Protein backbone atom coordinates (compact mmCIF):
# COMPACT_ATOMS: atom_id res chain seq x y z
CA UNK A 1 0.00 0.00 0.00
CA UNK A 2 1.01 3.61 -0.53
CA UNK A 3 0.95 5.79 2.57
CA UNK A 4 1.39 9.55 2.72
CA UNK A 5 2.36 11.04 6.09
CA UNK A 6 1.73 14.78 6.33
CA UNK A 7 3.79 15.83 9.32
CA UNK A 8 3.76 19.16 11.14
CA UNK A 9 6.28 19.81 13.91
CA UNK A 10 9.21 22.24 13.79
CA UNK A 11 11.69 20.14 15.83
CA UNK A 12 13.02 16.86 14.36
CA UNK A 13 14.27 15.76 17.81
CA UNK A 14 10.84 16.19 19.40
CA UNK A 15 8.48 13.45 20.51
CA UNK A 16 6.54 14.05 17.31
CA UNK A 17 9.74 13.68 15.30
CA UNK A 18 10.41 10.32 16.93
CA UNK A 19 6.83 9.22 16.33
CA UNK A 20 7.08 10.19 12.67
CA UNK A 21 10.26 8.14 12.30
CA UNK A 22 8.58 5.18 13.97
CA UNK A 23 5.57 5.41 11.65
CA UNK A 24 7.79 5.35 8.57
CA UNK A 25 9.92 2.46 9.85
CA UNK A 26 6.93 0.37 10.92
CA UNK A 27 5.10 0.79 7.63
CA UNK A 28 8.16 0.22 5.46
CA UNK A 29 9.09 -2.86 7.48
CA UNK A 30 5.61 -4.21 6.72
CA UNK A 31 6.27 -3.74 3.00
CA UNK A 32 4.38 -0.52 2.37
CA UNK A 33 5.66 2.45 0.37
CA UNK A 34 5.77 5.68 2.37
CA UNK A 35 6.14 9.33 1.41
CA UNK A 36 6.47 12.07 4.02
CA UNK A 37 5.52 15.70 3.58
CA UNK A 38 7.54 17.27 6.41
CA UNK A 39 5.98 20.72 6.21
CA UNK A 40 8.48 22.61 8.35
CA UNK A 41 11.46 20.98 6.64
CA UNK A 42 9.87 21.84 3.29
CA UNK A 43 9.40 25.44 4.46
CA UNK A 44 5.82 25.13 3.30
CA UNK A 45 4.14 28.43 2.43
CA UNK A 46 0.97 28.57 4.52
CA UNK A 47 -0.83 31.57 3.05
CA UNK A 48 -3.28 31.11 0.19
CA UNK A 49 -2.66 34.13 -2.06
CA UNK A 50 -2.53 35.25 -5.73
CA UNK A 51 0.93 33.68 -6.12
CA UNK A 52 -0.67 30.23 -6.05
CA UNK A 53 -1.82 30.80 -9.65
CA UNK A 54 1.15 31.00 -12.03
CA UNK A 55 -1.00 32.68 -14.68
CA UNK A 56 -3.57 34.93 -12.97
CA UNK A 57 -5.87 37.28 -14.84
CA UNK A 58 -4.02 40.60 -14.85
CA UNK A 59 -5.78 43.37 -12.94
CA UNK A 60 -8.52 41.09 -11.65
CA UNK A 61 -9.64 41.19 -8.03
CA UNK A 62 -8.27 38.19 -6.14
CA UNK A 63 -11.00 35.66 -5.36
CA UNK A 64 -9.56 32.67 -3.45
CA UNK A 65 -12.07 30.13 -4.78
CA UNK A 66 -12.27 31.34 -8.37
CA UNK A 67 -8.49 31.80 -8.66
CA UNK A 68 -8.02 28.31 -7.27
CA UNK A 69 -10.49 26.91 -9.79
CA UNK A 70 -8.86 28.75 -12.69
CA UNK A 71 -5.38 27.54 -11.74
CA UNK A 72 -6.54 23.94 -11.28
CA UNK A 73 -8.44 23.80 -14.58
CA UNK A 74 -5.71 25.56 -16.57
CA UNK A 75 -2.82 23.63 -15.03
CA UNK A 76 -1.22 26.79 -13.66
CA UNK A 77 -1.19 25.99 -9.96
CA UNK A 78 1.94 26.64 -7.95
CA UNK A 79 4.28 23.66 -8.38
CA UNK A 80 4.31 22.82 -4.67
CA UNK A 81 0.51 22.56 -4.69
CA UNK A 82 0.56 20.22 -7.70
CA UNK A 83 3.17 18.02 -6.04
CA UNK A 84 1.08 17.59 -2.89
CA UNK A 85 -2.07 16.87 -4.89
CA UNK A 86 -0.19 14.18 -6.79
CA UNK A 87 0.87 12.64 -3.49
CA UNK A 88 -2.76 12.53 -2.36
CA UNK A 89 -3.80 10.86 -5.60
CA UNK A 90 -0.94 8.36 -5.22
CA UNK A 91 -1.73 7.43 -1.62
CA UNK A 92 -4.06 4.66 -0.50
CA UNK A 93 -3.95 6.02 3.05
CA UNK A 94 -3.08 9.45 4.42
CA UNK A 95 -1.89 10.07 7.98
CA UNK A 96 -1.97 13.60 9.34
CA UNK A 97 0.45 13.80 12.27
CA UNK A 98 0.62 16.88 14.47
CA UNK A 99 0.58 18.23 18.02
CA UNK A 100 -2.73 19.63 19.23
CA UNK A 101 -2.05 23.37 19.48
CA UNK A 102 -4.84 25.58 20.77
CA UNK A 103 -7.47 22.93 20.11
CA UNK A 104 -6.53 22.48 16.48
CA UNK A 105 -3.71 21.72 14.06
CA UNK A 106 -0.59 23.89 13.67
CA UNK A 107 -1.05 26.81 11.28
CA UNK A 108 1.36 25.34 8.75
CA UNK A 109 -0.81 22.23 8.38
CA UNK A 110 -3.97 24.31 8.04
CA UNK A 111 -2.12 26.24 5.34
CA UNK A 112 -1.34 22.98 3.58
CA UNK A 113 -5.07 22.22 3.51
CA UNK A 114 -5.99 25.74 2.37
CA UNK A 115 -3.67 25.57 -0.62
CA UNK A 116 -3.69 21.89 -1.63
CA UNK A 117 -7.46 21.47 -1.36
CA UNK A 118 -8.10 23.41 -4.56
CA UNK A 119 -11.47 24.17 -6.13
CA UNK A 120 -12.14 21.29 -8.51
CA UNK A 121 -9.81 18.99 -6.59
CA UNK A 122 -11.20 18.73 -3.05
CA UNK A 123 -14.34 20.83 -3.37
CA UNK A 124 -16.58 22.32 -6.01
CA UNK A 125 -17.11 18.96 -7.73
CA UNK A 126 -20.26 17.08 -8.69
CA UNK A 127 -23.75 18.04 -9.77
CA UNK A 128 -26.16 20.11 -7.70
CA UNK A 129 -29.81 19.06 -7.98
CA UNK A 130 -32.85 18.31 -5.86
CA UNK A 131 -31.37 14.96 -4.87
CA UNK A 132 -27.61 15.46 -5.03
CA UNK A 133 -25.69 18.42 -3.60
CA UNK A 134 -22.19 18.03 -4.95
CA UNK A 135 -19.73 15.18 -4.50
CA UNK A 136 -18.75 15.73 -0.88
CA UNK A 137 -19.09 14.27 2.63
CA UNK A 138 -18.34 10.70 1.67
CA UNK A 139 -17.93 11.34 -2.04
CA UNK A 140 -15.38 13.20 -4.11
CA UNK A 141 -12.01 12.78 -5.75
CA UNK A 142 -10.46 11.14 -2.67
CA UNK A 143 -13.23 8.60 -2.08
CA UNK A 144 -12.00 5.06 -1.54
CA UNK A 145 -8.88 6.20 0.30
CA UNK A 146 -8.35 5.99 4.05
CA UNK A 147 -7.16 8.66 6.45
CA UNK A 148 -6.19 8.79 10.13
CA UNK A 149 -5.01 11.42 12.58
CA UNK A 150 -2.04 10.80 14.86
CA UNK A 151 -2.21 13.55 17.45
CA UNK A 152 -0.22 14.44 20.56
CA UNK A 153 -1.72 16.39 23.45
CA UNK A 154 -0.14 17.73 26.60
CA UNK A 155 -3.17 17.17 28.82
CA UNK A 156 -4.42 14.02 30.49
CA UNK A 157 -6.86 11.80 28.61
CA UNK A 158 -9.48 12.65 31.26
CA UNK A 159 -9.23 16.29 30.20
CA UNK A 160 -10.64 15.26 26.82
CA UNK A 161 -13.46 13.01 27.98
CA UNK A 162 -17.15 14.00 27.63
CA UNK A 163 -17.07 15.72 31.04
CA UNK A 164 -13.48 16.90 30.79
CA UNK A 165 -12.57 20.58 30.86
CA UNK A 166 -11.32 20.61 27.25
CA UNK A 167 -14.38 18.91 25.84
CA UNK A 168 -14.59 15.51 24.12
CA UNK A 169 -11.62 14.80 21.88
CA UNK A 170 -13.94 13.64 19.08
CA UNK A 171 -15.69 17.02 19.17
CA UNK A 172 -12.38 18.88 19.08
CA UNK A 173 -11.22 16.83 16.09
CA UNK A 174 -14.60 16.86 14.31
CA UNK A 175 -13.78 19.86 12.06
CA UNK A 176 -10.66 18.03 10.89
CA UNK A 177 -12.03 14.52 10.60
CA UNK A 178 -15.45 15.37 9.20
CA UNK A 179 -14.75 18.72 7.56
CA UNK A 180 -11.26 18.20 6.11
CA UNK A 181 -11.00 14.44 5.60
CA UNK A 182 -14.54 13.11 5.12
CA UNK A 183 -15.61 16.10 3.00
CA UNK A 184 -13.49 15.15 -0.06
CA UNK A 185 -14.30 11.46 0.37
CA UNK A 186 -11.81 9.81 2.73
CA UNK A 187 -12.90 6.89 4.90
CA UNK A 188 -11.80 8.31 8.26
CA UNK A 189 -10.41 5.94 10.86
CA UNK A 190 -10.73 6.64 14.58
CA UNK A 191 -7.91 8.97 15.65
CA UNK A 192 -4.86 7.84 17.58
CA UNK A 193 -4.22 10.36 20.35
CA UNK A 194 -1.18 10.33 22.63
CA UNK A 195 -1.72 12.22 25.89
CA UNK A 196 0.55 13.76 28.57
CA UNK A 197 3.38 14.21 26.12
CA UNK A 198 5.51 16.14 28.61
CA UNK A 199 5.68 13.08 30.87
CA UNK A 200 6.82 10.51 28.31
CA UNK A 201 10.19 8.97 29.15
CA UNK A 202 11.98 6.09 27.42
CA UNK A 203 9.79 3.43 29.02
CA UNK A 204 6.61 5.31 28.21
CA UNK A 205 7.80 5.89 24.64
CA UNK A 206 8.16 2.13 24.17
CA UNK A 207 4.49 1.78 25.17
CA UNK A 208 3.56 4.63 22.82
CA UNK A 209 5.24 2.80 19.94
CA UNK A 210 3.62 -0.50 20.85
CA UNK A 211 0.11 0.99 20.87
CA UNK A 212 0.68 3.05 17.73
CA UNK A 213 2.23 0.05 15.99
CA UNK A 214 -0.95 -1.93 16.54
CA UNK A 215 -2.95 0.83 14.87
CA UNK A 216 -0.55 0.97 11.93
CA UNK A 217 -0.72 -2.80 11.50
CA UNK A 218 -4.50 -2.60 11.14
CA UNK A 219 -4.78 0.49 8.93
CA UNK A 220 -6.54 -1.53 6.23
CA UNK A 221 -8.87 -3.54 8.47
CA UNK A 222 -10.00 -0.99 11.08
CA UNK A 223 -13.61 0.07 10.57
CA UNK A 224 -13.87 3.78 9.72
CA UNK A 225 -15.98 6.24 11.66
CA UNK A 226 -19.56 5.83 10.45
CA UNK A 227 -20.01 9.40 9.25
CA UNK A 228 -23.26 9.82 7.35
CA UNK A 229 -22.83 10.33 3.61
CA UNK A 230 -24.48 13.49 2.42
CA UNK A 231 -26.24 12.05 -0.63
CA UNK A 232 -27.12 8.60 0.75
CA UNK A 233 -30.55 9.53 2.09
CA UNK A 234 -29.89 10.66 5.67
CA UNK A 235 -30.11 14.37 4.83
CA UNK A 236 -32.84 16.50 3.34
CA UNK A 237 -31.60 18.17 0.17
CA UNK A 238 -31.04 21.03 -0.50
CA UNK A 239 -31.49 22.05 3.16
CA UNK A 240 -28.75 19.56 4.17
CA UNK A 241 -30.39 18.90 7.52
CA UNK A 242 -30.63 15.44 9.06
CA UNK A 243 -33.93 13.72 8.37
CA UNK A 244 -36.28 14.27 11.31
CA UNK A 245 -36.70 10.57 12.12
CA UNK A 246 -32.95 10.18 12.69
CA UNK A 247 -31.30 11.01 16.04
CA UNK A 248 -34.58 12.40 17.31
CA UNK A 249 -34.20 14.93 20.11
CA UNK A 250 -30.41 15.04 19.68
CA UNK A 251 -28.07 17.75 18.46
CA UNK A 252 -24.34 18.36 18.14
CA UNK A 253 -21.59 16.67 16.16
CA UNK A 254 -22.63 13.18 17.22
CA UNK A 255 -25.77 13.17 15.12
CA UNK A 256 -23.61 13.03 11.98
CA UNK A 257 -22.36 9.56 12.93
CA UNK A 258 -24.83 6.76 12.22
CA UNK A 259 -25.65 4.00 14.68
CA UNK A 260 -26.04 0.28 13.86
CA UNK A 261 -29.70 0.17 14.94
CA UNK A 262 -30.48 2.87 12.39
CA UNK A 263 -29.76 0.45 9.58
CA UNK A 264 -32.94 -1.40 10.47
CA UNK A 265 -34.89 1.86 10.49
CA UNK A 266 -33.43 2.87 7.15
CA UNK A 267 -34.20 -0.51 5.61
CA UNK A 268 -37.72 -0.35 7.02
CA UNK A 269 -38.22 3.10 5.45
CA UNK A 270 -37.01 1.84 2.07
CA UNK A 271 -39.29 -1.21 2.31
CA UNK A 272 -42.30 0.94 3.18
CA UNK A 273 -41.55 3.36 0.34
CA UNK A 274 -41.22 0.46 -2.11
CA UNK A 275 -44.45 -1.06 -0.84
CA UNK A 276 -46.28 2.25 -1.22
CA UNK A 277 -44.94 2.60 -4.76
CA UNK A 278 -46.04 -0.92 -5.71
CA UNK A 279 -49.47 -0.31 -4.22
CA UNK A 280 -49.81 2.92 -6.20
CA UNK A 281 -48.86 1.14 -9.41
CA UNK A 282 -51.32 -1.67 -8.78
CA UNK A 283 -54.22 0.69 -8.12
CA UNK A 284 -53.78 2.78 -11.26
Number of domains: 2
The CATH class of the largest domain: Alpha Beta
Please give the alpha-carbon distance between the first and last residues: 55 Å
Taking the sheet with the most strands, its summary is:
6 strands, parallel
Cα radius of gyration in angstroms: 21 Å
CATH superfamily of the largest domain: Flavodoxin domain
Please outline what is shown here.
The protein is α/β, with parallel strands linked by helices.
Describe this structure in words.
It holds the Pfam family Flavodoxin_2. GO terms for molecular function: NAD(P)H dehydrogenase (quinone) activity. The protein has two domains: 2-227, Rossmann fold; 244-284. It has helices at residues 15-29, 64-74, 79-90, 107-116, 169-182, 202-217, 230-234, 260-282; strands spanning 2-7, 33-38, 93-99, 146-152, 187-188, 192-194, 235-236, 241-242. The protein is of the alpha/beta class and 284 residues long. The N and C termini lie far apart (55 Å). α1 (15-29) packs across α6 (202-217). The strands form two sheets. Strands 1, 2, 3, 4, 5 and 6 form a six-stranded parallel beta sheet that branches. A two-stranded antiparallel ribbon has the order 7-8.
Amino acid sequence: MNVLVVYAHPEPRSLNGSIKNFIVQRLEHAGHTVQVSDLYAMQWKSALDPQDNRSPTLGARFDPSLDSQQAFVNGTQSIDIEQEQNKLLWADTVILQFPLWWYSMPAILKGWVDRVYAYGFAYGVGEHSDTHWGDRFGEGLLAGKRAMLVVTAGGWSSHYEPRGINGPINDILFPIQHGILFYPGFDVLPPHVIYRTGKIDAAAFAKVCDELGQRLDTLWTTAPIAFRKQNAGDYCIPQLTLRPELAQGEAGFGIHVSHPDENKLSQHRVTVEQSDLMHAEQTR
